Amino acid sequence: MNRFTRDQIAARVAQDIHEGAYVNLGIGLPTKVANYLPSDREVFLHSENGLLGMGPAPAPGEEDEDLINAGKQPVTLLTGGSYFHHGDSFAMMLVGHLDICVLGAFQVSEKGDLANWHTGAPDAIPAVGGAMDLAIGAKQVFVMMDHQTKTGESKIVRECSYPLTGVACVNRIYTDLAVIDITLEGLRVREMAPGLTFDELQAVKNAPLLAPSAGG
């Protein structure tokens, strides 16, 4: 089955981030988005540990150990970027100053419920971080994740079986198989991996999908 690579998913998300947007990129896969933002588009990247105006990852050997994102990865700071207390950072998140946040997930329900902080497994280490604040505070929530678990189960489900991060908060899902919108009518497929058919995509679903509308 044809699939998007993780870099292709990140590049696809970057296409949907509009000019002038204030954006938080979550820990893990979402951090790749920073490397694919168009150079002619001004986007302000925020990190909950207290950064605004992050650039792409530094070149090997040019890392600054004092300049990291919330996932403890080295980052760069663009001209005009700033540092501030993480309390101020969370205030930005909670009062609606972020246009978009991009998060990873364990599950997303057909209603847009998000589960991304704990699987409930006895040996799992729960780590919600700022995800709950981002999910409720950002104007739009994009999720990047593999379409299936390692055992082949769909991560897009009718109802989440894991503890929730946020209720009805997700707007769009980007996976290695498709781009899917959460709509009032249901899960609307916008795009699929090259060569993948809608029937093939439906075969790995847990929740029903709506075919791409005419014109995209």
For the termini, the CA-CA separation is 22 Å
Number of strands: 13
- Dominant shape: globular
Total of DSSP H or I helical runs spanning 4+ residues: 4
Provide the residue-averaged pLDDT. Answer: 93
Task: Report the sheet-strand fraction.
Answer: 15-25%
* N-to-C series of helices and strands: HEEEEHEEEHEEEEEHE
- Uncertain stretches of 5 or more adjacent residues: none
* Percent helix range: 10-25%
Protein structure class: alpha/beta
What is the CA-based Rg, rounded?
17 Å
What report would you give on this structure?
With 216 residues, the chain is of the alpha/beta class. It has four helices and 13 strands. The strands form two sheets. The protein has a ten-stranded mixed sheet, with helices on both faces. Strands 7-6-9 form a three-stranded mixed sheet, with no helix packed on it. Strand 6 and strand 7 form a beta hairpin.
Properties at a glance:
three-stranded mixed β-sheet; 15% helix; globular; alpha/beta; 216 residues; ten-stranded mixed β-sheet
Condensed summary:
15% of the residues lie in helices and 24% in strands. The protein has 216 residues and is an alpha/beta fold.
Furnish the topology, listing elements before pairings:
Blueprint lengths: L5 H10 L6 E4 L18 E4 L3 E4 L22 E7 L2 H9 L5 E4 L3 E3 L4 E2 L15 H7 L2 E5 L11 E2 L14 E3 L3 E5 L4 E6 L5 H6 L5 E2 L6
Parallel strand pairs: 1-2, 1-5, 5-8, 6-9, 8-10, 12-13
Antiparallel strand pairs: 2-3, 3-4, 6-7, 10-11, 11-12
